[in-house]
Design brief:
CATH superfamily of the largest domain: 2,3-Dihydroxybiphenyl 1,2-Dioxygenase, domain 1
Protein name: Glyoxalase
Keywords: Aromatic hydrocarbons catabolism, Dioxygenase, Iron, Metal-binding, Oxidoreductase, Repeat
Structural class: alpha+beta
Radius of gyration: 18 Å
Oligomer: single chain
Distance between the termini: 43 Å
Helix content: 10-25%
InterPro entries: Glyas_Bleomycin-R_OHBP_Dase (IPR029068), Glyas_Fos-R_dOase_dom (IPR004360), VOC_core (IPR037523), Xdiol_ring_cleave_dOase_1/2 (IPR000486)
CATH topology of the largest domain: 2,3-Dihydroxybiphenyl 1,2-Dioxygenase, domain 1
Number of domains: 2
GO molecular function: dioxygenase activity; ferrous iron binding
Mean pLDDT: 96
Strand order of the largest sheet: 17-10-11-12-9-13-16-15-14-18
Largest sheet: 10 strands, mixed
Strand content: 35-45%
CATH class of the largest domain: Alpha Beta
Number of strands: 18
Cofactor: Fe(2+)
Shape: globular
Order of helices and strands: EHEEEEHEHEEEHEEEEHEEEEE
Length: 300
């Protein structure tokens, strides 16, 4: 049975490309791949793109790109989705060229954004290797993919969303966090991984949020880069949403701050990779072991 390899890229609709370019390069440490009046791609490694941004008032996620290692795997997976009654569209040649992929399909998430499935990512030229102007180390990507995303089930459809991720898209359940955040209000989050094992490539929780995307996460190789990114964010006046802290399930040391589009990013170090043969699904009852103190931040 064909299975998703990793989260290959993520697409956002953003209202201010200029702010995003400064934020992505000077705070996160990414590199601009291509920029024109209405779009921009961002690099984190040898891939031609890991994020694409399109001019839009949405200021939210518009696509999650899921990578397969071969055309056969992709076609087998897409056929299985079709058998399940999922409506799929093939990406046009122009869209594939803009994504730097050989072939792709898309379907819609219960919360309105697209899931894109592809193989054959573009590799940058040897003379154009990834260079960050601020990172001490590098992003942890490779077969683990970009990082992770946490889209909210914001249409009172938490159960439908979990069912879609688990039984339609076939993500593997990593674990659960159920935390009573105030008397009578419990947040229930479900975390999913792909076959390459990053603790989670996607997670979701039901919440009445105006935006679908709560946050995306990128991971770095050196813990110092988390502290340096935190200092850059504070110095630049980027709103810090959650201070430095540690998660109990993926063991990530990280902080969260707000992007120019109002949704958040997590910048982390130390996240675990699941060994499927020794993994036990657990339920945790707190989002953080320590830290991650929440600051009052207004949504952009």
């Amino acid at each position: 049975m064909a299975e998703i390899s990793s989260l290959g890229y993520v697409g956002f609709g953003v209202s201010n490309l200029d702010k995003w370019q400064t934020f992505a390069t000077d705070i996160l440490g990414m590199q601009v791949g291509r920029r024109d009046a209405s779009s921009m791609t961002l690099r984190m490694d040898e891939y031609c793109q890991r994020f694409f941004l399109e001019q839009s008032d949405a200021d939210d996620i518009i696509a999650a790109g899921w990578e397969f290692t071969s055309e056969q795997e992709l076609e087998s997976y897409v056929a299985e989705l079709g058998d399940k009654g999922i409506e799929l569209q093939a990406l046009s040649a122009e869209q594939c060229a803009r994504r730097h992929i050989e072939k792709g399909y898309r379907c819609q998430d219960p919360n309105g954004f697209d899931h894109e499935f592809f193989f054959g990512h573009g590799v940058a030229l040897l003379k154009d290797q990834f260079r960050s102007s601020v990172l001490k180390s590098r992003f942890i990507t490779g077969e683990l993919g970009v990082g992770h995303i946490l889209p909210f089930a914001n249409r009172n459809n938490g159960a439908e969303t979990v069912e879609f991720y688990k039984n339609v898209l076939k993500f593997r359940v990593s674990d659960y966090i159920r935390q009573e955040v105030q008397p009578g209000l419990t947040v229930e989050a479900t975390f999913f991984h792909t076959k390459t094992g990053r603790h989670h490539s996607i997670a979701t929780a039901q919440a009445p949020s105006p935006k679908v995307l709560n946050h995306f996460m990128v991971q770095v190789e050196d813990i110092d880069d988390v502290g340096l990114a935190y200092d850059r964010a504070v110095a630049a006046g980027v709103p810090i949403v959650l201070e430095l802290g540690h998660h109990p399930n993926d063991k990530m040391f990280s902080f969260y701050a707000q992007t120019p589009s109002g949704f958040n990013f997590e910048f982390g170090w130390g996240g675990i990779v699941i060994d499927e043969g020794n993994w036990e699904v657990k339920t945790y009852h707190q989002m953080s072991d320590w830290g991650h103190k929440r600051n009052p931040v207004s949504q952009a």
